[in-house]
Design goal:
Layout (H helix, E strand, L loop, with lengths): L3 E5 L3 H13 L3 E5 L2 H10 L4 E5 L7 H10 L8 E5 L4 H10 L3 E4 L4 H15 L7 E4 L2 E4 L4 E4 L2 E3 L3 H12 L7 H9 L8 H14 L8 E4 L3 E4 L5
Parallel strand pairs: 1-2, 1-3, 3-4, 4-5
Antiparallel strand pairs: 6-7, 7-8, 8-9, 10-11
């Protein structure tokens, strides 16, 4: 399946160069010349990846990125920020806003293409990874369903995302701050106790028949998903 990439950039020469290199790689390309147009195109049909200029007319790239991350439909779309601002503080600000990568102008087209391929691989795992397993837990990502010991579980959207992240990082201790960033997003302002509330809901759904609790609370550190295989 061909990936669609949206270029949000107001320099025509750069847009032409990007389009040429992207189409040469086999990608479908959409363009937007300012921040407002970029947001409209994202809302109409979420692309597979966005190349987003920092300095844009009407709406800055930083604000576009913030709004993309706030919408559940687009919060997981990979974003590469393109900018002439090369200072470390600017890079940090761009990444903290929710960008997945940061490329300083002028840049090498071949390096940018490599970064795009890497991000798309991470965002679209192969079909072999459509199912996540840990012990007697099974999650079908395509069907958006979860089973424990063959019993179907009813999870809310946040609990589903939480469990998915736990399954993808089984055995690792994950802090509340880490879980907030990964599950709610860097730009969503919620308190750390929110994690505890959803952990309790997830535990209630997982342990309905009195099975051993797979989520371990690690004092002063966070939580870990730990189950015996089988």
């Amino acid at each position: 399946m061909t990936s669609q990439i949206l270029i949000v950039e107001d320099e025509p020469a750069l847009v032409a160069m990007l389009r040429y290199n992207l189409e040469k790689e086999g990608y479908q390309v959409e363009e937007a010349a300012d921040g407002e147009e970029g947001l409209l195109k994202v809302e109409e049909a979420a692309p597979d990846l966005i190349l987003l200029d920092w300095m844009l007319p009407r709406l800055s790239g930083i604000e576009v990125c913030r709004r993309i991350r706030r919408r559940p439909e687009t919060r997981d779309v990979p974003v590469i920020m393109l900018t002439a601002r090369g200072e470390e503080a600017d890079r940090v600000r761009g990444l903290d806003t929710g960008a997945d990568d940061y490329v300083t102008k002028p840049f090498s087209p071949s390096e940018l293409m490599a970064r795009i391929r890497a991000l798309l691989r991470r965002a679209r795992p192969s079909s072999a990874h459509e199912t996540l397993n840990c012990g007697d837990l099974v999650m079908d990502l395509a069907a958006h369903k979860v089973w424990r010991s063959g019993r179907s579980l009813k999870l809310g959207p946040t609990e589903f995302r939480l469990l998915r992240y736990f399954l993808e990082h089984a055995g690792r201790v994950l802090s509340r701050e880490h879980l907030l960033d990964a599950v709610w997003g860097r730009d969503i302002y919620v308190e750390e106790r929110t994690v505890d509330v959803h952990i309790r809901r997830l535990r209630k759904a997982l342990n309905i028949d009195g099975e051993p609790d797979p989520i371990r609370t690690v004092r002063s550190a966070g939580y870990s998903l730990e189950m015996a295989d089988g």
